[in-house]
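(Deposited chain)
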Amino acid sequence: MKNLHDQEISLSIKEIEAIWAFHQCNDAPDDPEGDRLAWCQPSDLIRKGFSKHQAAGLFSSLLEKKVIQLEEERSASEGGDLFVFCWDIVREK
């Protein structure tokens, strides 16, 4: 898989499961520019059965690998920080 900077990366099974959860939470983003972007928050993973600890770790890992980017800082009552994920990075070698 390639990240947002077109670099080859490897993902763990849990990271792939997190990306699948993003798809289930936001499977048809309405993006007029055609960027195929999806918004995601740690609360999305928690709703899909991940623990808070797992969600925090996965978001940290996906940020480090540049699979997602922080879009906006938000309070916990708003679901936590808002991140952006681009479906175009999910492609096979």
Observations:
- Residues 13-25 form the longest helix (13 residues).
